[in-house]
Amino acid sequence: xxxxNKANVVLDKWTLFKVFYITSTxxxxxxxxxxxxxxxxxxxxxxxxxxxxxxxPEEIIDAMQTYGETYYLAEPMxxxxxxxxxxRMEEERAAGKDISRSVINNFKxxxxxxxxxxxxxxxxxxxxxxxxxxxxxxxxxxxxMGPIGFVLFKTxxxxxxxxxxxxxxxxxxxxxLGSIMKQxxxxxxxxxxxxxxxxxxxxxxxxxxxxxxxxxxxYTVNDTTTTLQSFLNSALPGILPLGTVFLTYWLMSKxxxxxxxxxxxxxxxxxxxxxxxxxx
Amino acid sequence: xxxxxxxxxIALFYWLVQNxxxxxxxxxxxxxxxxxxxxxxxxxxxxxxxxxxxxxxTMNMAPxxxxxxxxxxxxxxxxxTIPLAIATNMAPEVIIxxxxxxxxxxxxxxxxxxxxxxxxxxxxxxxxxxxxxxxFYFVSIFLQSIIQFPVYFGIxxxxxxxxxxxxxxxxxxxxxxxxISFIALSKFLPGIGFAMFLKSSGRKDKxxxxxxxxxxxxxxxxxxxxxxxxxxxVIIAVMMVNNKTAAE
Lengths: 280, 248
Hints:
heterodimer, A: two-stranded antiparallel ribbon, about 5% strand, B: mainly alpha, two-stranded antiparallel ribbon, 11 helices
C-alpha cells in the first residue's frame, strides 16, 4: 500500500469531531416510525465515509442506503459508542479488509438494545430525576439558578458520557463493548445494576414527596371528629400514593391501558369524588 | 393581556425548543422547570415565570419519555399556562388545574409530526440513490424543523393570541366542583410517571428498594432531603454490587 492510500484510511481529528457533533446533536432529530433514527445515523457517519472513500462514489451511495434504511433506536449520547466502533470498522474496510456493510449493520442492531437500556438507566431514570429533585424546589422558591443549573448540569453530564464513550470506543474498536457490556461482571453491567438500585430508592422517595392525594372525609364518634386521612395515615401509611402508583402500574402492564385512558379514568374518579365530597 | 409581540416570541420559542440544534441533542428534553424563565422574561416577569415552571414540573418528576415518545406533554401545558397566568395574575392552584387538559392534548402533536416526516424518507432514499450528500444532510438535519414550524408555531400563536380571551373566560366560568376535581387530579398525575418508570425499568427484583426509599422518605419527611436519600442509595448500591461480585 502506498503512503497516499494509508493517509486515506485513518480519520483526522476534524472529521471525528464532525461525526461526534452530528451524532450527539442531530441523530435523534429526524424521527420516523418505520426507521426511527436510521437516517440520522447514516447522516452522522457520512463525513467519515466521504473522507474514507473520496474517489469511490458508489461506496458513499452504498453506505447511505444500507445505513439509512435500517431501523435504529438508541439514546444519542450512549450511541456515540456505536458510531465510534462503526467508524473503526469502516476504516478497516477502506484499508482493504473484507468486512461487508451487512456485518456492520448486524453489529449495530445487536448492541442497540443493551446500549439503549444503559443510556435510559443513566440519563432517563437516574440523572434526570435527581437533577429535577435538586433544581425544581429552587425554581419554586423563585431562584433563577434553578432552571439555569438544571440545563448546565444536564448538558455537562450528557457531554461527559458522550465524549467518554466516543473516545474509548474509537480507541479500543470492536472489543470495547465486549469487555464493558458483559452482563453482570462487566463495568457496564455493574454500573447499570448499581444505578438501578439508586434510582429505585430515589424514585420511591420522590413518590412520597410528590404524589400527594388526600381525602377530606371525616367521621364523628363520641363528639370527636376524626378525618379519614389521619386514620389512613396511622393504619395504612402511604396507601394512597402507593396505591396510585401500583394501580397505574398494574393497569399499564397487565391490562395494557394507555396513559390517556388512565388520566381519563383518574379524571372521572376525581369528578365523582369532588361531587360527593371526597376531595376538597 | 398577551401582546402580539409576546405571542409571536413565545410561539417562536416553542418551535425552537423542538429543534436539536438549540437543545444540543436533548431533543424534546426541554422541561417546564427551564421553560418558566425564558417565557417569564418575554412576559416581563422572569421570577414568577420560574416559580410557575417549577410548579408545573411537579406534575411529573419521573422520566416521562420511553423511546423518545411523549406520554404526558407538560411542555405544551407550560407554554400555554405560564404566559396566561402572568398576564391575568392567576393563582398557582388554578394554573395546575388549567394545565391538566393540555398535558393530554399535547401528546397528539408529536405523532402527528412524525407521520408527516414519512415523506422525508422518500427524499432521503432518493438522495442516497443519487449520492447527493447535501440533500441527505438537509433531510436529516433541517427537514423536521421545517415540517414542524407551521404546526408548533401556529398552534401556540393562535391559542395564545386569539385564544387568550376565550381561555381566561373559561377559567373564570369553571364551576367549583370541576376546579376541585382538576386540583385533585393534579395530585394523582405525578403517580403515573413513576408507574411508567417502574414498568420500563423491568426490574421487579429491585422493587423492594422502591418501597425502602418510599418509607424512609415517608417517615422522615421533615429531616431528610432528596440529597440525603441519594447518599443512602449510593451506599446501598455499592454494598449490593460488591456483595454480588463477591458471591461470584
